[in-house]
Amino acid sequence: MAEGKTIVVKIKRQASPTEPARWEEFSVRWRPNMNVIACLIDIAENPVTRYGKPTTPVSYEANCLEEVCGACAVVINGRSRQACSALVDHLDQPIRIEPMSSFPIVRDLVVDRSKMFEDAKRLRCWVPIDGTYDIGPGPRIAPERQQVAYALSRCIFCGNCLEVCPKVNEHSDFVGAALINQVRLFNMHPTGAMHAHERLQAVRGIGGIQECDNAQNCVKACPKGIPLTESNNDVNRQALLDAIFGWMFR
Amino acid sequence: MPAKAAATAEVTPEATTVPAAVPSRSYIWDKLHSLSGIVPIGAFLAEHFWSNSYALVSIDRYNQASYDLQTIPWRVPVEALLIWLPILYHGFYGVYIWSKGESNLSRYGYGANWMYALQRWTGLIAFVFIGWHVYVERFMTQGRSTYFDVATTMANPLYLSFYVIGILAVSFHFGNGLWQFANKWGLVVGRDAQRKAAWITGAIGVLFAVVGLLIIFGFVFQWRPFQFYAQ
Amino acid sequence: MNPTRVILIGGGLAGLMAAIRVAELGHAVDLFSVVPVRRSHSVCAQGGINAAKNLKGEGDSTWQHFDDTVYGGDFLQNQPLVKGMCEAAPGIIDLLDRMGVTFNRTPEGLLDFRRFGGTLYHRTAFAGATTGQQLLYALDEQVRRFEAEGKIRKLEGWMFVSAVLDDAGVCRGVTAVSLRSGEVRAFPADAIIVATGGIGSIFRQSTNSVACTGSAQSALFQQGVNYANAEMIQVHPTAIPGEDKCRLISESVRGEGGRVWVPKTPGDTRDPRAIPDAERFYFLEEWYPKYGNLVPRDVATRAIHKVVFEEGLGIDGKAMVYLDVTHLPREMLTRKLGGVLEIYEKFVGLDPRDHPMKVFPAQHYTMGGVWVDNENQATNVPGIYAAGECEYQYHGANRLGANSLLSCIYGGMLAGPAAVRYAQNLAKGSDTVSSDVYERERKRQEDIYEKLRGQEGSENPITIWKEMGETMTQHVTVIRYNKDLEAADAKLAELQERYKRINLADRARWGNQSLHFTRELGNMLVLARLITQCAALRNESRGAHYKPDFPERDDENWLRTTRAEYDNGSFKIHLDPVDTSLITPRKRSYKS
Questions:
Q1: Can the peptide bond before residue A47 be classed as cis, meaning omega within 30 degrees of 0?
Q2: What is the number of domains present in chain B?
Q3: B71 inside domain
Q4: Stretch C340-349: mean pLDDT, rounded?
Q5: Given pLDDT bands bounded at 50, 70 and 90, which one contains residue B10?
Q6: Which of C11, C45, C440, C545 could form a disulfide with C33 if both were Cys (CB 3.0 to 4.6 A apart)?
Q7: Residues of chain A found within 8 Å of residue B101, distances taken between Cβ atoms
């Protein structure tokens, strides 16, 4: 490609939660293999809009830049995804970047996703162990089972599945596919399974699994390819059996 | 690069405990909602299409079938408990669920998302249609609807088109609702199983739509393919 | 038992492990992290974690692991704690296993192990190719459990600014700034544990995450905490070169059979798949027949430099070599290396199962770090402890692959209880310290922030950062010459001057990322100079530190830890003897 080529980037900005949002356009020098993060670094170095107006560097979240930390989820050209793996050459221009809308905004592209971590507490997403002292190996696990669990445990809590879900919005408290997947993961572990009842009760709480109406956008948006709808259906079955036989036989 | 998370909430003065979530009633209401769509509403729908198919045999057989249903013992309590109440519940609770969703088809135009959006809209159409249908054929006729009553309604092109739309909406909503049920009750898990369930429930939806349209066709064009049974 | 409060800085593996240990002992924990802890850099560790469990019938032992580690580190470690770490490793794996880490399994349901660089044994437990992620998640979940039980308080989005030292020079807490509101606040504690990880950002294009700036270590260094072996910087041989960062392609790729090669003809432009075996130069296998592609990282990195820059055999004449897995079964690749190959696929756009990967070395790890004593992870300042990559203890002059996750967890396991013991034995707890002590430090830090926000000038922080990274990568990584190091230090001094003239485009307090970054940048520059000066000082070649003018290891003069002390802008560097009481240093060679 020709030297001196530029890319136009439009960014939705908001100085704080109380201030109005606005769009700003930037022009960035093209280089091979660029991603959206590289554009944002360029803008930070030269915070001037395309029309020559000085502005501030864009606030955004990023950490690992290899799609394993989950920090940099934003909406690019209308699609929720990780900014680090959004390669400029694969995007239509101008590139439109917005913050995710399902979470409270902090500033510019930064949103507050603490809801997911709070829900992980309420859903008891851990394997309760007796202590960290050396008391010998864990339970044996069949390789096939490990493969399934591994696929589920790669969730990076990016929030893309919540962002694309029509049931995650200000009218509903839905915990979202990522958290339901966590319930499945911990119920699969031999030790975690000993406490499955508590998780299955929790997942029937307010904003629980009943809120899912199978639009199934989550599984398409997941950058880690986690079979979220399978997890959802599996937890649905477990939760239902627990609900029915819970009161019948307890 | 300066891009740290401005993460999570402000500081709490001390560490705070967070109890596990407890089951909410909405879980039971939601499950009842999806169940009521299959039994009794779906079952009644099947029965209703069955008895109306007598229109494809003869007027007499149709009226006879209607009369048989209209003269069952405990008619009103049975109707109330097995039909009206479930439909009202399914309908109003459905509207409530509808209000909690926000369709985002314009951004994410995937197949299942389309089905989700259509399920919402067909549900709404079906609810209005069924309300009108019950009012006209059950209450206006004092519970004594005959072939003639239905045929008269259908003679009006406006009502006829409402019937066509209503039948299609109901059939879609039922077929897709069966698939939703299979997911929501965890009857299918794997992606292949989900896909197979989609084929099967889709076929059921199409079957209902075809039978429903044929019944309308029968009324409008006096078409009775099974008339020879009665001869 | 008096209840005490311990502050943890950093929510990676080491920090989380230490936090769990302290909470388990029944003491209050405040856990500070710039990112939500689940997004810490530990998630990037790919290959695995070492433990000599000897489940493959190879006769592996913890002593062998210890020997490999010390030998790999070119004998620069104080040996007793390294031995302790290797002995604790099998128990650590069991603990992680119990926490639910999805380690790969053998058909019998036992843990599977793979081979890594610098050893001849299958000693590395792994969870696909995202082992660090899986380990971090397991600890994150345990911490979340303690959090839900009200035993740990997390302060995510709060960045450590400085330690609060009382008049006796004892650490009584920290000051931190909210990345969201910009508020500077003091937090009291009886002891603090620093676990802030790597310093990759100093080299800009490294394999590290954005948060790995080394700012906290540098701030503490400037407050009197010693820093050791700063010059020992590991450059990983195989990473995908990139503009925003270099993305690591794990050593496990070679551990599972990946081969490194270049075309034998310089400038061969053929598709790599069209080049027959006879015309490929498998230089690692040829030069190091015993270890082959699994020589330690410093050796592999220098070999790649040699083949590219001295022999001119880089792909298309560029600074790149092939890392090839196309000869391996696809199913195995996906099962054992899926996570790594996915990174190549996503960021380069080619499937490495079909196309040999193009890779080049990149800054990866710092063996050096905050100085700690050799039993308690305690620094020289009372009340300050350190664990993980930010301290210097375990890896000497070169770290072996899959030892980092282990040292993080082991360090955290030691630091937590050690900090509690210290706090328990304090004559006066932090509750007796006057609030003036906290307010004074808080005000001092807030003033620095306010000055920075209001400052006029012509310099841009990103430009300074880029120039620093360029200088460091060029002169202070693989091959070091004294005259270049001097030039680099002069350049860094110039950048420090320019730093004083930074003009921030953003003067807001709320969510002002460039403000916080600029604060960190000032600290990075100090650490950059320390690294450069220590590198200039050490006139020998040892592990990752290589000077062509001094190509041999010199135990007589340089079997020494370089321990630096901050002295008002300049550094006093002490040369401490190394504890080699367990294994006598011998010549390090991987040729046969």
A1: no
A2: 1
A3: yes
A4: 93
A5: low
A6: C11
A7: 166-167, 169, 171-172, 213
In a domain, B96, yes or no: yes
Q: What does C335-363 look like in DSSP terms, one character per residue?
A: HHHHHHHHHHHHHH-S-TTTSPEEEEEEE
| CATH fold group of domain C5-232+367-433 | FAD/NAD(P)-binding domain (3.50.50)
Classify residue C167 by its DSSP letter: T
For testing the chain A interface, which of C43, C98, C207 should be mutated: the one with the most A CBs within 10 Å?
A: C98
Q: Nearest Cα to B5, choosing from A66, A106, A162?
A: A106
Token look-up 């009006």 returns: B156
Task: Report the distance separating Cα C401 and Cα C403, nearest Å.
Answer: 6
Write the pLDDT tens digit of every residue in A44-77. 999 999 999 999 999 999 999 999 999 999 999 9
Return residues 23-62 of B near A (CB < 8 Å).
Answer: 23-24, 26-28, 30-31
C313 φ, ψ (degrees, to nearest 5): -105, 10
For C336, phi then psi, to 5°, come to -100, -25
Every domain of chain A and the residues it spans: 6-111, 114-249
Please tell me whether residue C236 adopts helix, strand or coil conformation. strand
Q: Are C337 and C129 in contact (CB under 8 A)?
A: yes
Identify the residue among B11, B14, B16 best suited for mutation to test binding to C, counting C beta carbons within 10 A and taking the highest: B11
- The pLDDT confidence band at residue C580, using thresholds 50, 70 and 90, is very high
Closest by CA position to C129, among listed C293, C336, C411, C277: C336
A114-249: CATH number: 1.10.1060.10
Q: Which residues contact B128 (CB under 8 A, 6 or more apart)?
A: none
Phi, psi of C268 (to 5 degrees): -60, 115
Write down the architecture of domain C238-359 according to CATH.
Answer: Alpha-Beta Complex (3.90)
Fold of the CATH domain A6-111: Ubiquitin-like (UB roll) (3.10.20)
Domain-located, residue B154: yes
Judged on CB neighbours under 10 Å (0-12, 13-18, 19+), C500 is exposed
**CATH number (domain holding residue B140):** 1.20.1300.10
Alpha helices in chain A (DSSP H): 36-45, 114-122, 143-152, 160-163, 177-188, 196-202, 217-221, 228-249
Q: Which residue of C has its CA nearest to B21?
A: C148
- For A94-103, write each residue's pLDDT tens digit: 999 999 999 9
Q: How far is CA C205 from CA A41, B168, C200, C321, in A?
A: 13, 60, 8, 18
Is residue B136 a contact partner of residue B177, using CB atoms and an 8 Å limit?
Answer: no
Chain A contact set for B3 (CB, 8 A): 37, 40, 59-63, 71-72
Q: What is the ipTM of this complex?
A: 0.97
- Point out the residue among A44, A126, A157 whose CB comes nearest to the CB of C142: A126
The CATH number, out of the four listed (3.30.360.10, 1.25.40.10, 3.50.50.60, 1.20.58.100), of the domain defined by the range C437-547: 1.20.58.100
Could you give the 3-state DSSP secondary structure of residue B156?
coil
d(CA B98, CA A145): 38
Contact status, residue B49 vs residue B208, Cβ threshold 8 Å = yes
The predicted structure's pLDDT at residue B15: 87
With contacts defined as CB-CB under 8 Å, which chain A residues touch B184?
210, 212, 214, 236
